[in-house]
Please model this.
Amino acid sequence: MTNSPTKTTTISSGGATSAMRVIVPLQGVVQGRGGLFLGSVIPCALFYFWQLYLKRNRNRRPSSNNNNAESGSSGSTHLPDVSSGSGLQRVHSRILLSPKGTSGQSQVSVRANSVISKQIDSSPCFVGLNKASQDPYDEFSNPDGVIQLGLDENKLSLDLVQEWLAENVSRWMMAEDLSISGIATYQPFDGLLELKVAVAGFMSQAVDNSVSFSPSQMVLTGGATPALEILSFCLADPGNAFLVPSPYYPEDVKWRTGVEIIPVPCRSADNFSLSIDALDRAFNQAKKRGLKVRGVIISNPSNPVGNMFSRETLYNLLDFATEKNIHVISNEILAGSSYGGEEFVSIAEIIDSEDFDRNRVHIVYGLSKDLSLPGFRVGAIYTCNENVLAVVKKLTRFSSISVPTQHLLIQMLSDAKFVQQFIKRNRERLRRMYSLFVSGLKQLGIECTKSSGGFYCWADMSRLIRSYNEKGEIELWDNLLNVAKINATPGSSCHCVEPGWFRLCFTTLSEKDISTVMRRIQKVLETRKSLS
Amino acid sequence: MGFESANNNSILSKLAINEEHGENSPYFDGWKAYDNDPFHPLKHPNGVIQMGLAENQLCFDLTEEWIKKNPKASICSTEGIKSFKAIANFQDYHGLPEFRRAIAKFMEKTRGGRVTFDPDRVVMAGGATGANETIIFCLADSGDAFLVPSPYYSAFNRDLRWRTGVELIPIHCESCNNFQITTKAVKEAYENAQKANIKVKGLILTNPSNPLGTTLDEDTLKSLLNFTNQHNIHLVCDEIYTATVFDTPQFVSIAEVLNDNETNYCNKDLVHIVYSLSKDMGLPGFRIGIVYSFNDAVVNCARKMSSFGLISTQTQHFLAAMLSDEKFVANYLAESAKRLAKRHKYFTNGLLEVGIKCLKSNAGLFCWMDLRPLLRESTFDSEMSLWRVIINEVKLNVSPGSSFDCQEPGFFRVCFANMDDETVDIALSRIRRFVGVKRSGDESNAVEKKQQWKKNNLRLSFSKRMYDESVLSPLSSPIPHSPQVR
Model:
């Protein structure tokens, strides 16, 4: 035992001879001399100093010494000196030493640490978005810029909204009851009743009046993102899980709730529609892992594929949920952006007509997609479960809609004629862009899954990737971004199990731009053909 | 059906079932009473006057005037509509750059230009409520704790604890030294936490204070900063009442203390400010919360979390214009302080006339009333009884000190900035009547005093029953307010 300090200092001196000096005591450990204590101290100390060496050679800001995490409690008993704030620059070792998290004197929370690790910022989504925003394509001023096909925003019909505003703004500004105190003061956190009525009306229109949504079952939130998070907080405890059909567009549901997301793979052979067998398998696997599944989260129309759930699939899903006694959250924020031949079926319609328990179904909605107003932050939770409604009402205090925006939307959405026209024309424009874009890809030999809603197509570029795995896919993505200068979303970012699929959004383009996109993709295809 | 059976609740999360939202506590009874019988000068002149809501309505005319003169600021105007497309489509969680610049500038102005703020550190959140929750999410994990000087804003119990799982440990302040924060009390709270094996991650305070209305002096701030720095814990300063300071001593922001020679060695990464326009500009409906941190990692993390509480770009655009109007801002701040000072003086003098003292305060939208002389006994039960009398007989919704974790019974927070002059007069006259009645009751002998008290209670019994019914029935108010807002 008394030898251990000398041994550790010997190790830290570095140089070739240190290797021998390390091996000798370790041999001693292996042979039983020195015991468990040395056997753990020495490797840990080695590891620690290695991290220190790495850290010193990295470019780090001086203010960041507080961002470093402590070694986890499960491992810290071996490093008593390190954890007592001795002033050593600690390396960000959380992920390496202790997957469980930090204790001791970690400066920020575990959640903050996960952001520091920069794993999010280096994802293709972020890299692509950044590059496109730094070098944005413009037909005239920057014709060689990056064309953004990774942002699912709909710019096709914003002019219709602006038109409405222009026509109505003077009339609206004269309204007597719109005083400053009605806008500036505290209002119910779950939204003004008039806006709930207006949003319920809009939702009903978006589903072609197949359902009549009731404002009293609605809670408004500052966007669909908080709506989903709020429901997660309400329906699951940290460590529980939700099943999510993949591919899915990643949402930040896990982060603060501590809830696990278990992807349920959907396959191209099924046109990426949900198989109840796969759901069941995923549920059982979760159970084996000791994870309690609290619900299924579906997007309908789905993102990134753009397909819709058939009536039958929805019945089967509800049967499944009933059997397992779990919730179903249906994210229907693209309901009004469906353009396919078949009708969109909301899960609300199923529970209305059939004898399913309404208490287990919750719908997330919002105006970011269907009304092209992502900046205004308008989301909604719709549920018939009174207990959930009561809790969600309280939780929405952390993300309420700004009151002036509520008033604007009350006016806009109460104009039934405008809403009807908007939904109709928006669908027409989406349909047109979709077919132009998909046929353009087809001419290049790239097939897409049939989409019936959303702002994107789901393209099969698996024949173009060099190796049939994620690496090959990312390599193609990189090629598309840096050579073709188009930002597409690779399927791996959406947890797709089959490599080579890409999501391409066409709603920020004009019709003219489509040919530019196709030309650029063709360039990449030719390069790859010539090299293979 | 599995769900509809008795274990409907078991299918929800623990968070959904627990009472940590606090809205079933007796402190919301005042709100319920107000919701059932709200005062209106013409329609309900005998209704309950809302004095539990810290809202600043004194300068609406200035804001209204500015809006009329600057139609371009609103996208809902013929002049402003050109910006509509860009604004409606913008959803970057960094926020509009002009908005962040305007907020940083406004924060500088409200601190007399004595510090500068970096727009790149301005992060949005869903109101001050969202901002406070976000900073706790960034700094602490479930099971950790934050120290908080008490009495403190009662909704902290929900906003800082409910979803985060973080505990609050009060630092007790006493009336004998005007509720000032002493190093002794801070150390005691910290050491008790250590003994109980609770990990303290930081200290959060409101400066100017809610509910006290006082500002912290430079020395106290410095010693708090030294303390947190020494123990390597965070210091979060909720400065949402900065511009409600209407009297000396001058407000000192933690940002100023950080620059001071004596304390600039302190680790800036441990200091964070929460801000909002809900109180200073009287715009709580706009839901503007700001997290300003000197720690890059926290800025980064809070910014990503802001997806859960982004501010509508329409609002951002409007405020960028309004807060960049330097002339307007300067005039607004001066006028607001003036009107608050006037209202505060009028109200506290009115209370003094009937022998009710308030803690000497220089900020906030409320005052801290000392009603200890009116208590039957120096107990919290007595305080609650008195409170119920004030709600049901005097018909004023005030907030009892125990809801702010005050350790001494008899203190009440009463808000005065959310009403016009006439309503203030009505409130004061009701208080005068009540105290007069109490006084005449007190003047008779002890036994009779008790009988008088009982008489008062008997007189209340009818309304009490009504009040009980309203408690038992589901909360279905015509104006569904989120209770116990600041």
In short: The longest strand of chain A covers residues 293-299. The mean pLDDT of chain A is 83. Residues 416-443 of chain A form the longest helix (28 residues).
